[in-house]
Task: inverse folding
């Protein structure tokens, strides 16, 4: 009888059940998103002059501002999710399987938000998209970024999420609930036959094998957008591609740690994310953050050592000038995060709370680093004889970006209410053919 | 049938990407003032090629068995 009056009571992991805390989250997220939409509407109605964005050189500003910083940041965050999901499958890391769906979801959500940030940065989004499809050059790093990231990585991640969830969806479709139609649709006829399992294994393996090089190429072109621009001190250089990848890995893993910890807490009794997951993520993050700090130091050294005056002017702006507080904040947070990770690795005692603090520090450092990649080279040390410019985002840009964060959080929060965020078959044991198979609990 | 559709989609996707890539280049001109693709809409072909390859993976798994 209880099942009849509360039809979603049989669904696992709180799916279909709207708790007070979740409603409060929804309210806050919608309010922030609403204000972000208002700010974007204001920008669209009055033109981009209501933002702090100005032409470089002649107007002494930056044409790529906070929106482009967020594009770089969110697309970077998307890297780790799908790579972790793919790596756990290809290398059969059983401990990471419980967070595979969280990782895929993080990729999908951050890519959606990152691509929205690209569109928001365009004064006339529809014209931009239409012209890109008609006239863009696939040889260009910009086009490569948009097609490979938007078309390739985003669709691959969606395919990964969809195919990986069909088995759970088929099980959920058997449970009477208001979401039964949705689960049936997702299951798309899946019956869990031996043939279907074999096909699923093959497809997921080849998707995993294909997606890692795809995302490496896609994110390298993201770095090349800056790296191939000769006319901007601080941008031109062969390190931009690998640097983008490494920082993307660090920020993505950091976000994955935080999201996994939030999900772990939110699910309560349904939680299946144990300490082993965080141990793995902590180790990966340690490697990625060390490499990111190494790249930061190498780039700084190159910028300082016997450089032309323009590069030196940029270095001064970073070390002691306008951007010094962001630069030192970035270095300090990255060092703090790395220190916490090293301390945990040394003691072999991975505490989730400490790992979350380290992750927040590293993610914030990565965001600051993205800011320093995009902005200073536009306002300082231009090769043409322009005066030094300035840029700092105003309330419109901050509000729009807050709206983007809220949108991303809403995507993940809503997903958790319609589908189990942790794969339901949680008792994973090795099998002969796949290496890992889930037993029916 | 499943295999034929999948291989067909993958090959046509790769072909579309190649055609899109090469017809997007402004062959036969050195002018920077004429940098439009040789074929207007070539970038869309490239994008469709990517979509086709990924759709192949999804269809391979989702298409129902013949004996169902």
Result:
């Amino acid at each position: 009888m209880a099942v009849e009056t509360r039809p979603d009571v049989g669904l696992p992991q709180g799916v279909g059940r709207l708790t007070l805390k979740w409603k409060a989250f929804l309210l806050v997220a919608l309010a922030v998103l609403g204000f972000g939409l208002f700010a974007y509407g204001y920008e669209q109605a009055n033109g981009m002059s209501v933002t702090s964005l100005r032409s470089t050189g002649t107007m002494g500003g930056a044409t790529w501002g906070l929106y482009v910083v967020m594009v770089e940041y969110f697309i970077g965050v998307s890297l780790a999710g799908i790579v972790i999901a793919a790596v756990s499958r290809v290398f059969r890391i059983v401990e990471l399987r419980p967070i595979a769906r969280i990782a895929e979801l993080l990729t999908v959500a951050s890519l959606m938000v990152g691509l929205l940030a690209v569109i928001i940065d365009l004064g006339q989004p529809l014209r931009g998209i239409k012209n890109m499809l008609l006239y863009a050059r696939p040889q260009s790093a910009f086009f490569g970024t948009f097609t490979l990231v938007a078309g390739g990585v985003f669709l691959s991640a969606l395919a990964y999420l969809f195919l990986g969830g069909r088995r759970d969806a088929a099980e959920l479709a058997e449970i009477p609930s208001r979401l039964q139609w949705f689960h049936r649709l997702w299951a798309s006829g899946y019956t869990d036959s031996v043939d279907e399992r074999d096909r699923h294994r093959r497809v997921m393996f080849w998707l995993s094998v294909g997606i890692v090089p795809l995302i490496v190429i896609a994110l390298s072109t993201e770095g090349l957008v800056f790296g191939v621009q000769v006319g901007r001190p601080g941008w031109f250089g062969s390190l931009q591609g690998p640097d983008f990848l490494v920082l993307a890995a660090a920020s993505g893993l950091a976000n994955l740690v935080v999201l996994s910890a939030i999900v772990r807490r939110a699910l309560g009794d349904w939680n299946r994310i144990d300490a082993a997951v965080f141990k793995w993520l902590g180790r990966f993050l340690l490697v990625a953050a060390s490499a990111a700090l190494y790249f930061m130091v190498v780039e700084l050294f190159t910028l300082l050592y016997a450089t032309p005056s323009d590069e030196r002017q940029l270095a001064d702006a970073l070390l002691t000038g306008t951007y010094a507080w962001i630069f030192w904040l970035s270095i300090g947070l990255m060092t703090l995060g790395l220190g916490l990770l090293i301390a945990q690795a040394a003691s072999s005692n991975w505490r989730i709370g400490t790992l979350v603090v380290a992750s927040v520090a590293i993610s914030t450092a990565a965001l600051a680093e993205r800011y320093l990649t995009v902005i200073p080279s536009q306002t300082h040390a231009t090769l043409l004889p322009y005066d030094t410019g300035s840029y700092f985002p105003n309330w419109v840009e901050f509000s729009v970006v807050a709206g983007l964060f809220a949108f991303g959080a809403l995507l993940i929060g809503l997903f958790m209410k319609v589908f189990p965020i942790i794969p339901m078959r949680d008792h994973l044991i090795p099998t002969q053919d796949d290496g890992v198979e889930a037993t029916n609990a | 049938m499943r295999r034929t559709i999948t291989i067909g989609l993958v090959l046509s996707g790769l072909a579309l990407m190649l055609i899109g890539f090469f017809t997007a280049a402004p062959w036969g001109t050195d002018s920077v003032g004429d940098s439009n693709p040789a074929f207007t809409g070539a970038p869309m072909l490239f994008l469709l090629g990517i979509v086709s390859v990924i759709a192949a993976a999804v269809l391979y798994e989702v298409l129902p068995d013949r004996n169902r």
Remarks:
- The two ends of chain B are 14 Å apart (CA to CA).
- Helices of chain B lie at 2-23, 42-62.
- Chain B has two helices and no strands.
